[in-house]
């Protein structure tokens, strides 16, 4: 027991051993917030303040939840079964499965990740004959999610104009479609749980009585609804109210764009009359120079709750700054440096390459790949979001829930089985008329469409019967085989990687099954085939939506700064420190946006333990265009004494040296940007009437946007970023690309 508290400083100790009460731990990066939260759980249980079942802890990612469970079991023998530790989405999923009836859902409801949700919205617009130029699906998705995240159902939306009224109708139609198909999107998981708790008094009382301690990590990034959900679970101050223990850092609030509400911290203090706000000021992660740089940087923000951080680890190495000519040059420098670090004995997994936007990873990946350095990219397209994996999952989803029209449409003709667009339209018309799911409509369809569709339904029925008694991984294997997916990718020229991913899916199922077998899964979840399959599918959807990294493997870690939150690495390379990129151009013109970018930069810098590299380039190819950027203002905000330039500093390219209207920032007291020579015009190419940025459609890959081009005449190739299947280089003369929009 004393061991548990041995390695804590006095403030951490005070936080961990607070008597049962509400508390807010407000502290900077690397000060041990997550460690305090985990230790507090162990301490509460060990001292009999609460049983393991009485704890509810919310983490930022599934990975963090797992780590917390592992750390807890390492601290003392504890049965982590049945402990409610997870992300908001994960916990709500579990809650809704346990009370699906009361929540108005079938037991085996499926989860739509954000890609599925978009597909579902597109399908809805088509069914209703709505012009998707007037109501772009992505915008509608954003609108719907925004309402849900604020806890607002269609009937409660205040709509003053026709356009909004129409959007609200579509929101309502979308809800009806989801309900019909027994699917639930991410924000719905939370909203449904919230509504259920709010309306169902016995259930509410049950959970309020059960959870005595609710602990929340990364509290600064909770949104309005999440906070209300926590409040409801905690109870509102009657006797028997649970203790809320929240840890956070206002300087690391980076999800404002998704509705995160920093005001939650102040509300929490007020709503719960929090008696204890504890500050932790010692940073255990980073050397002094890195920490000083982070402190100096964030001091440029005006909206802060204010705190300081110190370390006794010594100044350590200076921060290395590198100016490259081009992005390839930058990538080459980074990879060479990585290689020499690895030669010195640093493990690849202790090295992270961070960037502001996913699009920046390509050139780094290319360089790593050609140099034979093992790497792993997080964010972007994660495993469960890949096309082939989603196809396989769609078959499984249909087996679990034939009413899932999103899954039905995805694979009814994949691999191709001669079901044309006409047949599908006939089916959709009939389904609309009878108000039945597509699957159930098939038997009522006559003629040729009826026959081919009936064969598909027959296939799914057969798969369900054949796999009913199989363990999960054999079921997945069987489905991949019998659906024809394996043969399809075997015959595809570049299908090797896709086949490997399908095998990986079988492995994932085997691991999942092993967890069930070992009793690692919560006791309140079933173990019959149907339930395990539904749980596995939920797991896949939740993982796909999880934008944080898994820091484990022996590979260099690549990720966006957002995904790096909460993690730490010995060596961090932060590339692309250019105006327009970081800070991002969308945020540069308003001071709130700029402050959020600066917090993001603060998160990036504070990920490094020992060594930090900052780099920028004079020109960069991004989204198919060469951009000439100034170096980021954030570089200027780091005191010179902390840095060491690996290339001669070039004052002419500094952000603060000359005024320019281009990046004039009305909200900032900083001098404005220097004037820039206009970028040289891009060489115009003969792209057969197409241009970079043009939306196109391809017979096999679907819709996409041209992002790059090379060669000319009959050799011209374009790179198209397809919505479904990612980026591909295509020969213009061969690929039939039809311009759209
Ligand atoms: P972030 O704001 O980035 O999420 P955090 O405040 O949650 O950071 P932790 O991740 O808990 O910080 O801790 C940072 C590092 O410092 C970890 O490696 C942790 O093990 C270590 N650490 C925390 N407290 C102590 C301590 N008292 N003694 C030694 N190491 C510590
Ligand atoms: Mg943390």
Written description of the protein model:
- The chain is of the alpha/beta class.
- It has 26 helices and 22 strands.
- Helix 25 links the parallel strand 13 and strand 14.
- Helix 16 packs across helix 20 and helix 18 (421-434) crosses helix 20.
- Bound molecules: adenosine-5'-triphosphate (ATP) and magnesium ion.
- Adenosine-5'-triphosphate binds next to helix 3.
- InterPro entries: DExx_box_DNA_helicase_dom_sf, DNA_helicase_UvrD-like_C, DNA_helicase_UvrD/REP, P-loop_NTPase, UvrD-like_ATP-bd.
Secondary-structure topology with pairs:
Elements: H1 2-6, H2 10-16, E1 23-27, H3 33-46, E2 55-58, H4 62-75, E3 84-86, H5 88-98, E4 110-112, H6 114-127, H7 137-149, H8 162-181, E5 183-185, H9 186-199, H10 201-210, E6 213-216, H11 224-234, E7 243-248, H12 263-271, E8 276-280, H13 288-298, E9 319-324, H14 327-343, E10 351-355, H15 361-370, E11 375-377, H16 387-400, H17 405-411, H18 421-434, H19 438-441, H20 447-467, H21 472-482, H22 485-491, H23 496-517, H24 529-544, E12 556-560, E13 569-574, H25 591-605, E14 608-617, E15 619-622, E16 625-628, H26 633-636, E17 643-645, E18 695-698, E19 702-710, E20 717-722, E21 726-731, E22 737-739
Parallel strand pairs: 1-7, 1-8, 2-3, 2-6, 4-5, 6-7, 9-14, 9-17, 10-12, 10-13, 11-12, 13-14
Antiparallel strand pairs: 15-16, 18-19, 18-22, 19-20, 20-21
Residues 33-34, 566 line the site of magnesium ion.
């Amino acid at each position: 027991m004393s061991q548990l508290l041995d390695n804590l400083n006095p403030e951490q100790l005070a936080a961990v051993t607070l008597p049962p009460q509400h508390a807010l731990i407000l502290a900077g990066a690397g000060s041990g917030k997550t460690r305090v939260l985990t230790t507090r759980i162990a301490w509460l249980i060990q001292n009999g303040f609460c049983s393991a079942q009485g704890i509810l802890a919310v983490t930022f990612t599934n990975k963090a939840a797992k780590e917390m469970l592992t750390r807890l079991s390492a601290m003392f023998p504890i049965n982590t079964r049945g402990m409610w530790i997870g992300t908001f989405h994960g916990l709500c999923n579990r809650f809704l499965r346990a009370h699906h009836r009361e929540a108005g859902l079938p037991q085996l409801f499926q989860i739509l990740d954000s890609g599925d949700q978009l597909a579902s919205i597109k399908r809805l617009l088509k069914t209703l004959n709505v012009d998707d130029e007037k109501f772009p699906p992505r915008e509608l998705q954003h609108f719907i999610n925004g309402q849900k995240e604020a806890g607002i159902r269609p009937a409660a939306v205040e709509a003053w104009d026709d356009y909004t009224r129409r959007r609200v109708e579509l929101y309502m139609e979308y809800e009806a479609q989801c309900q019909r198909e027994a699917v639930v999107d991410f924000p719905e998981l939370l909203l449904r749980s919230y509504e259920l708790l709010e309306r169902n008094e016995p259930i509410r009382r049950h959970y309020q009585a059960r959870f005595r301690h609710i602990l929340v990590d990364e509290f600064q990034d909770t949104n309005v609804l999440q906070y209300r959900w926590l409040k409801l679970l905690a109870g509102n101050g009657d006797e028997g109210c649970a203790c809320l223990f929240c840890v956070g850092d206002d300087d690391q609030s980076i999800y404002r764009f998704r509705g995160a509400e920093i005001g939650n911290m102040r509300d929490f203090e007020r709503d719960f009359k929090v008696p204890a706000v504890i500050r932790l000021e010692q940073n255990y992660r980073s050397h002094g120079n890195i920490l000083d740089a982070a402190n100096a940087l964030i001091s440029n923000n005006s909206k802060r709750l204010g705190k300081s951080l110190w370390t006794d680890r010594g100044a350590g190495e200076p921060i290395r700054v590198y100016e490259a000519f081009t992005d390839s040059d930058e990538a080459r420098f980074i990879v060479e440096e990585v290689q020499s670090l690895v030669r010195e004995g640093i493990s690849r997994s202790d090295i992270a390459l961070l960037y502001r936007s996913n699009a920046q990873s390509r050139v780094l990946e290319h360089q790593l790949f050609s140099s034979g350095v093992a790497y792993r990219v997080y964010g972007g397209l994660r495993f469960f979001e890949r096309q082939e994996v989603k196809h396989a999952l769609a078959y499984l989803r249909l087996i679990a829930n034939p009413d899932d029209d999103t899954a039905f449409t995805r694979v009814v003709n994949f691999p191709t089985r001669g079901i044309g667009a006409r047949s599908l339209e006939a089916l959709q018309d009939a389904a609309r008329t009878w108000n039945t799911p597509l699957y159930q409509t098939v038997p009522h369809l006559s003629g040729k469409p009826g026959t081919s569709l009936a064969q598909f339904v027959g296939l799914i029925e057969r798969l369900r019967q054949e796999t009913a008694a199989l363990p999960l991984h054999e079921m997945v294997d069987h489905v991949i085989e019998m659906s024809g997916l394996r043969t399809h990718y075997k015959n595809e020229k570049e299908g090797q990687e896709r086949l490997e991913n399908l095998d990986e899916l079988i492995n994932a199922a085997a691991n999942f099954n092993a967890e069930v077998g070992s009793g690692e899964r919560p006791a309140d979840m079933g173990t019959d085939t149907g339930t395990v399959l539904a749980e596995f599918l939920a797991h896949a959807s939740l993982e796909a939506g999880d934008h944080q990294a898994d820091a484990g493997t022996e590979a260099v870690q690549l990720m966006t700064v957002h995904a790096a939150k909460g993690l730490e690495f010995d060596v961090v390379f932060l590339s692309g420190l250019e105006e327009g990129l970081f800070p991002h151009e969308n945020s540069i013109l308003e001071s709130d946006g700029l402050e959020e970018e600066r917090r993001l930069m603060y998160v990036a810098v504070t990920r490094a333990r020992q060594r930090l590299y900052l780099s920028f380039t004079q020109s960069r190819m991004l989204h198919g265009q060469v951009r000439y950027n100034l170096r980021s203002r954030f570089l200027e905000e780091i005191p010179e004494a902390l840095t060491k330039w690996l290339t001669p500093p070039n004052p002419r390219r500094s952000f603060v040296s000359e005024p320019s209207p281009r990046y004039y920032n009305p909200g900032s007291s900083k001098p404005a940007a220097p004037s820039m020579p206009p970028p040289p015009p891009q060489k115009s190419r003969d792209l057969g009437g197409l241009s970079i940025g043009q939306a196109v459609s391809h017979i096999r890959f679907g819709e996409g946007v041209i992002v790059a081009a090379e060669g000319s005449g009959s050799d011209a190739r374009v790179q198209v970023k397809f919505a479904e299947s990612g980026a591909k280089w295509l020969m213009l003369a061969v690929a039939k690309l039809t311009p759209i929009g």
